[in-house]
Design a protein that fits this description.
binds 2-(butylsulfanyl)adenosine; 38% helix; 5-stranded mixed beta sheet; disordered N terminus; single chain; 25 helices
Length: 674
């Protein structure tokens, strides 16, 4: 009699082998989408499941494991776009746990290895991308992405654009390597996606992808135009000071140097830490940034060092991952909305469900291609989550639950509001209504104008805007500034007090900062951040209206797309007329502080490039002096460069500066100017 188990195993051989081959290819494909295109094709949970399946098969057939197996890799591949940086300290990953009991097991292992009772630190696990920063002589000299953990990408120029990350430490003058997470706050992510959808661009799947896509930009101007932030959470190396005794003290040290340190940190024994887990399920939704779990670390730094690490992860730290918040619901209908820029957006109307702390009854489907790619039909059961913990999103349909009564959605080729023929431009995913007077576009444009990200006119909600439009009292946002008590009081449910409040809010809005007005105008690609920048650099609407594309490109953070868009908008006669009517309504935007005014010094606001070897100063010293005098020191010469400081053996950068007619100075002139 043959051994049945052995027989079964033999029979499975070809199948398992084929499965391993498939998993190698599939995971490689998913990695490419995730790490190189910042556009994940599946959820983290689905990806983890494939990786686990592969690891299990490889454990069964070790002889089939290839050297480059994705199961053995810490992270993604790096892009070829940026210069490689070999990490002095390899950037490891963390093992995952999913329950309090698994955390207790982890603690038991640590205590056994350490031979003494331990205290732990519990931190939020930020859903961003790892960054390793090097400060030398107090100066930020290097910023590297994780890459594969051994070699990352040099993204210093882009990191220097992150607000809240100092280029200089307060006092420490030794050498510090510190690890942290670059992330995009939830609100910035929501606004970026809104802007991208309005501009007919693809949206980011979550804040992490938005942060990755923003940081790994060849043009630092694009990075600067996104609202990235960073939290630091681990010292990798410290030379020139004693290593703090505990992790809590390490965080204090970083904080004292003016660095942004991860907040909401808790320390205690293992039972106290496990006791925290429950309240984090709710608390995570209240944070301004997305977290996908918590990290538990041994507090004693000596024990952390002694425990060391396995090939992939340190022994004295572990991740606790929140359960994926995915719920099932049904698509009752698919409506098509028209945005202020005319983009038609399919919107799923859902059977209401609770997910990640709120009740959801709608989810945007972005565009026609997305609905088709995910095969989402009217009547379908679907899996829903919140992208980045904030934007309701359908992950996939559940075709196995179909009854046969579901209907395939067809994108209308006419505007559902005004009936104009819509069109889809080549290379764009969006259908657009071309009619500027389309009632939906007008209404959405006014709602945008009064919104918090723009002119922030309180009390003017969608309902009131609709009433005013229906009464023929307003036709666009400029008309708001001619409203009187006599216009408001006859409206339904409008009392004396509310009407007074609205007029007071309008009065206050007349003197909003120029940046807010610019964001309100709906100039393509100009949101609140670009609005502020333009306001700070031009000071008035008139100056901006008169600016050429070159003038705009002279601002380091402004690239070609925004520059072109601004020039085109101000050249349009309808827009000019709109601005005149705003002015007639008493709108007088207030100039904002020049950002340069904040930086004091001989090089305030100037962009400087160093090239060649200087006779006395090292590259870092020159950079430090320039930055202390308010300069931004960048790596490549462009039209935005103000000065090139050239030393011995200066090469192509000097040539480029000569070609562009940029001021070239030597060390002596630099020192004299300083
Ligand atoms: S400590 C040796 N602390 O989570 C690993 N990591 O899954 C040290 N992360 O790649 C990491 N928040 O990028 C640590 N408070 C935190 C974190 C954190 C987010 C990321 C980190 C790491 C990943 C591990």
């Amino acid at each position: 009699m043959p051994d049945t188990d052995a027989q079964k195993a033999t029979n499975n051989l070809p199948k398992d082998h084929a499965r391993i081959t498939f998993l190698y290819e599939e995971i490689a494909r998913l990695n490419r989408a995730y790490y190189e295109e910042d556009a994940p094709l599946v959820t983290d949970a689905e990806y983890d499941a494939l990786l686990r399946e592969l690891a299990a098969l490889e454990a069964k057939y070790p002889e089939w494991r290839q050297e480059n197996s994705p199961s053995q890799r810490v992270g993604g591949r790096r892009l070829e776009k940026f210069a490689p940086i070999t990490h002095q300290i390899p950037l490891l990953s963390l093992a995952n746990t999913f329950s309090g009991d698994e955390l207790r097991d982890f603690a038991t292992r640590c205590v056994k290895l350490a031979g003494k009772p331990l205290t732990y630190v519990l931190e939020p696990k930020i859903d961003g991308l790892t960054i390793a920063l090097t400060y030398e002589n107090g100066q930020l000299t290097q910023a590297a992405t994780r890459g594969d953990g051994l070699v990352g990408e040099n993204v210093l120029e882009n990191v220097l654009t992150i607000a809240g990350l100092p280029g200089r430490l307060k006092s420490f003058a030794g050498r510090l390597l510190v690890r942290g997470e670059v992330y995009m706050p939830k609100q910035a992510f929501v606004e970026l996606n809104e802007q991208r959808e309005a501009d007919g661009e693809t949206v980011f799947a979550n804040p992490r992808n938005a942060a990755a896509g923003s940081l790994r930009q060849l043009d630092a101007a694009v990075t600067a135009s996104r609202r990235l932030a960073v939290w630091l959470y681990d010292i990798l190396l410290l030379e020139g000071a004693d290593w703090p005794a505990t992790h809590m003290q390490s965080l204090d040290f970083l904080r004292a140097q003016g660095l942004p340190v991860i907040p909401e940190v808790f320390s205690g024994d293992i039972e106290e830490v496990v006791g925290q887990l429950e309240h984090w399920q709710e608390k995570r939704h209240k944070l301004a940034f997305d977290i996908d779990g918590l990290v538990l670390k041994v507090d004693d730094e000596q024990v952390r060092a002694d425990l060391g690490s396995t090939a992939k992860a340190p022994r004295a730290a572990i991740a606790y991952k929140f359960p994926a918040e995915e719920v099932e619901t049904r698509v009752l209908d698919i409506h098509v909305g028209v945005g202020r820029t005319g983009v038609l957006t399919p919107l799923a109307i859902l059977e209401p469900v609770w997910v990640a702390g709120s009740k959801i009854s709608k989810a945007t489907l972005h565009n026609e291609d997305n609905v088709a790619a995910r095969d989402i039909r009217i009547g379908d059961y679907v899996l829903l989550h919140k992208a980045g913990d904030v934007i309701p999103e359908i992950i996939k349909s559940l075709p196995e639950k179909r009854s046969g009564d579901e209907r395939i959605f067809v994108m209308p080729h006419i505007c559902p509001e005004c009936g104009s023929a819509a069109s889809r431009a080549e290379g764009e995913a969006a259908w657009r209504c071309p009619n500027r007077s389309c009632p939906a576009r007008v209404r959405e444009g006014i709602e945008h104008f009064v919104s918090r990200q723009a002119m922030y006119i309180e009390g003017l909600g969608p309902q009131l805007i609709n009433q005013l439009l229906a009464a023929g009292r307003i036709h666009d946002a400029a008309d708001l500034f001619s409203l009187t008590m006599a216009d408001l009081l006859p409206l339904e449910r409008m009392g004396q007090k509310s009407a007074q409040n609205i007029l007071a809010a309008l009065e206050a809005a007349r003197r909003r900062p120029l940046g807010a007005l610019l964001a309100a105008l709906g100039i393509p690609y100009v949101g609140s951040k670009a609005g502020k920048l333009l306001a700070a650099n031009f000071g008035s609407l008139e100056a901006l209206a008169a600016a050429s594309q070159e003038d705009l490109l002279a601002i380091p953070e402004i690239g070609e797309i925004i520059a072109k868009s601004v020039v085109k908008w101000f050249a349009d006669s309808d827009n000019q007329e709109f601005l005149q009517r705003l002015q007639a309504g008493g709108v007088e935007p207030q100039a904002e502080n020049q950002p340069q005014a904040e930086a004091q010094g001989a090089f305030a606001g100037k962009v400087v490039v160093l090239t060649g070897t200087l006779p006395n100063l090292s590259r870092n010293e020159a950079k430090a002096k320039l930055e202390a005098a308010g300069a931004r020191v960048t790596g490549s010469v462009s039209r935005k460069t103000d000065y090139v400081v050239a030393g011995e053996a200066a090469g192509s950068k000097l040539e480029k500066a000569e070609e562009l007619g940029i001021a070239i100075i030597d060390e002596a002139e630099l020192l004299a100017m300083l």
